[in-house]
């Protein structure tokens, strides 16, 4: 990659877009941890477990950019510019993002911006919340007996109203594939209604996993037909993922995390 001529870069200069994982600090990758340990600057999001920041050098600059649904402390354009600005000072910059940077994490937009500025970057994948939540809830997202596919879906697509995400419901409802919805809790009503209207049985098992992989993990299981009523009865904290599919019923046998906590 051609180095940006306006930057005082040296060969150490690099932006690392690092996935911090879903919450359990043990779920960051070894490579991600090594990046953090040599960082001069760390820009981190709301969903990052702040315990991980202790891994950065004592004199590292830690910048909270506070991204969460509906409220960005800094708009995305300013985050992009800040990344470039810090890198252009010749610093090792870690952009620490919850889960995986490329799964509903705007990592693609940040990488595009860095590329447009000719600033060198690397992407360090992370364990995405949907897969981690499923694993910690004892729900195999695929299983030869039930399903051969899994789809990650946003419950809150770009530019659409919070109430009505415009998804291709007929293709999502089709077949038996597992669906994992991110940012979907506030649209649970729409999700259940559209999946049933497009052919999924109201008896399809559904799980909601909140604060996955942390000591506060809360897992509830219900069905597509009963989910809204059941959720109304308890206050489910965010962040949460919604898993729809027959695999959810395997939790009865395979739940291990909350069983170990009992
Ligand atoms: C903006 S997306 C970021 C996803 C992230 N890049 C990833 O790969 O996990 C935020 C959504 O991820 C999900 N999420 C993140 N961390 C979670 C956790 N610990 N437990 C449950 N859901 C989580 C929620 O659906 C939340 O609304």
TrEMBL record:
- Which InterPro entries does the UniProt record give? 4pyrrol_Mease, 4pyrrol_Methylase_sf, 4pyrrole_Mease_sub1, 4pyrrole_Mease_sub2, CobA/CysG_C, Siro_Cobalamin_biosynth, Uropor_MeTrfase_CS
Pathway assignment:
Porphyrin-containing compound metabolism; siroheme biosynthesis; precorrin-2 from uroporphyrinogen III: step 1/1; Cofactor biosynthesis; adenosylcobalamin biosynthesis; precorrin-2 from uroporphyrinogen III: step 1/1
Instruction: List the Gene Ontology MF annotations in alphabetical order.
Output: uroporphyrin-III C-methyltransferase activity
PROSITE patterns per UniProt: SUMT_1, SUMT_2
**Its domain of life?**
Bacteria
EC number(s) reported in the record: 2.1.1.107
* Secretion signal, residue range per the UniProt entry: none
The residues covered by the Tetrapyrrole methylase domain are 15-226
Q: Which Pfam families match?
A: TP_methylase (PF00590)
Any one GO biological process: methylation
- Gene3D superfamilies the record matches: Cobalt-precorrin-4 Transmethylase, Domain 1 (3.40.1010.10), Methyltransferase, Cobalt-precorrin-4 Transmethylase, Domain 2 (3.30.950.10)
Which NCBIfam families does the entry mention?
Answer: cobA_cysG_Cterm, PRK06136.1
Q: Which family does it belong to?
A: Belongs to the precorrin methyltransferase family.
Q: Which PANTHER family does the record cross-reference, listed alphabetically? A: S-ADENOSYL-L-METHIONINE-DEPENDENT UROPORPHYRINOGEN III METHYLTRANSFERASE, CHLOROPLASTIC (PTHR45790:SF3), SIROHEME SYNTHASE-RELATED (PTHR45790)
Identify this protein by name: uroporphyrinogen-III C-methyltransferase
């Amino acid at each position: 990659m051609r180095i940006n001529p306006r930057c005082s870069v040296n060969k150490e200069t690099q932006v690392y877009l690092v996935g911090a994982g879903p919450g359990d600090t043990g779920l960051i990758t070894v490579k991600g941890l090594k990046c953090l340990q040599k960082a001069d600057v760390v820009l981190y999001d709301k969903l990052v477990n702040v315990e991980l920041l202790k891994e950065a050098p004592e004199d590292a600059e830690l910048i909270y950019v506070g991204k969460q649904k509906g409220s960005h402390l800094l708009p995305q354009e300013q985050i992009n510019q800040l990344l470039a600005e810090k890198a252009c000072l010749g610093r090792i910059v870690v952009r620490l993002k919850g889960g995986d940077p490329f799964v509903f994490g705007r990592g693609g937009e940040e990488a595009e911006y860095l590329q447009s500025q000719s600033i060198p970057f690397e992407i360090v994948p992370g364990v995405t919340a949907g897969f981690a939540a499923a694993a910690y809830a004892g729900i195999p997202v695929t299983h030869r007996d039930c399903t051969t596919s899994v789809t990650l879906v946003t419950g809150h697509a770009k530019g659409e109203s919070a109430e009505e995400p415009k998804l291709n419901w007929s293709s999502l409802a089709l077949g038996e594939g597992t669906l994992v919805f991110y940012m979907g809790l506030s649209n649970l009503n729409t999700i259940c209604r559209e999946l049933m209207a497009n052919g999924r049985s109201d008896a399809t098992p559904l799980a909601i996993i909140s604060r996955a992989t942390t000591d506060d993990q809360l897992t509830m299981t219900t069905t597509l037909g009963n989910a809204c009523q059941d959720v109304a009865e308890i206050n489910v904290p965010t962040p949460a993922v919604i898993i729809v599919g027959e695999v959810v019923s395997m939790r009865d046998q395979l739940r291990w995390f909350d069983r170990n906590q009992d």
